[in-house]
Amino acid sequence: MLSFITVSGVFISKLAIDPLQDHVTNLQNLSKETLHELNLPISTIVSNSAMLKKNSNDIKDLKRISRIESACNMLQQRYNELDYMIKTQTFEEIKELFHLDILVEERITFLKALYPHISFRVKLEKTVIFNDKIGFSKVIDNIVDNAIKYSQKSISINIILENFILSIEDFGCGIDEVELIKIFDNYYQSNQNMKGFGIGLSMVKRFCDKNHILLNINSKVNVGTVVSLKIEKKGIGRC
Question: What is the pTM of this model?
Fold first, then answer.
């Protein structure tokens, strides 16, 4: 009798789960196909904007083209993030060999457009790592965004990459010892008047734990904060 109940339970569960799995698979396939279709218009906008910029000398037209390029860069960013999410959901291998110093430079260029008043003082050692490139870019964006958010009286951010350690330093309000314990909690914010939902550092911590990166935060109230990412040297190198 017990065996019959067990078999019946498994059979019923399978009947309930199979349609759900099919639905998820269909959604994943639709997402992949949609993503693929988006690639063509993005590439078309990029190539044609470049041609227009090359052949135009009118200042107003060049400004309009620059705005189109900025919007397209943001669209490309969303495309990359959607592609990243699909791959993580389907458990595809998302690690690759890349220049971390070049990635940092790319993120700084992107962030400068969002925060033109910020002065980035940068020292980058050529470093090649094998890791999740898109995830790492999101980590950099989150840390720098937090640094700017809590440095309203300062316009300087120091970014240093050497000996496989990436350090991002701000000169803002700092974090006291009690808050340091809580900052990795979802939705925690030390200043409730700041914009955002407080999920950035929680995401950073999860990424670092998953990818064998040692995350360290040193902070002093009214002095500033240094966030350091020490990358495991196994499987990485320089060139």
Answer: 0.63
Strand, helix or coil for residue 234: coil
Residue owning tokens 């002065």: 119
Question: What's the whole-number mean pLDDT along residues 17-41?
Answer: 60
Helix, strand, coil % in the chain, rounded to nearest 5: 55, 20, 25
CB 166 within 8 A of CB 160: yes
3-state secondary structure of 81: helix
CB 138 within 8 A of CB 203: yes
Strand partners, 97: 130
Q: Provide the 10 A C-beta neighbour count for residue 101.
A: 20
Q: What is the pLDDT of residues 166-176, one digit of tens each?
A: 999 999 888 88
Q: Which whole number is the average pLDDT over 193-212?
A: 71
Backbone angles phi, psi at 154, to 5 degrees: -130, 150
What is the chain's alpha carbon radius of gyration, rounded to the nearest angstrom? Answer: 23
118 secondary structure, DSSP code: P
